[in-house]
């Protein structure tokens, strides 16, 4: 019998070394992507990973490998935290004139490595800092804020719209763990209003399958 176990062995030791964080509240598209109830990422409906390197101005973000402190050194801001254990979130949030951006970590990222990036049109909700001069909304390499829903269909194929006017995508692939037992999942979530994208986020998670008797 197979069971899916959380792939955190190599990351647990990083938790104690994560940057100090201030208490905050995760809101908006950041909370939507971080939680388990807004989007529906259980079903694989993509054949490959659409998002590679994420460009945020002068910073290149590689999910699961770039640290929150790497972005903080480039743009400043506060690393906020909320929750405990498996529900613990740490993030940077930058509020711009037209959009808000979140860079987020969780326990699988040792509360240090960026596992998710989310962008929302309009003002921020929750704990967020004003975007500094030179900050630009991340380029994910997929349809973004302002894209028509038809562009999602032409890019990814059909996907059902959920109860929150959300569209969910997921792709899986074997991870390079040297054992052939790990799996990488990339998930993409959109919020659509009036046929237009007003929120988008992407995240990655690594899990490993273990055999038990």
Write structural notes for this entry.
With about 210 residues, the chain is mainly beta. The protein has one domain. Helices cover about 10% and strands about 35% of the residues. The chain contains three helices and twelve strands, in the order E-E-H-E-E-H-E-E-E-E-E-H-E-E-E. The chain has helices at about 30-35, 70-75, 150-155; strands at about 1-5, 20-25, 55, 60, 80, 90-95, 100-105, 115-120, 130, 165-175, 180-195, 195-210. Strands 1, 2, 5, 6, 7, 8, 9, 10, 11 and 12 form a ten-stranded mixed sheet that branches. Strands 3-4 form a two-stranded antiparallel ribbon. A hairpin with a 7-residue loop joins strand 10 and strand 11. The radius of gyration is 17 Å and the shape is globular. About 35% of the residues are buried. Residues about 1-15 have low confidence and may be disordered.
What's the quick description here?
Helices cover 11% and strands 35% of the residues. It has one domain (2-211). The chain starts with a strand and ends with a strand.
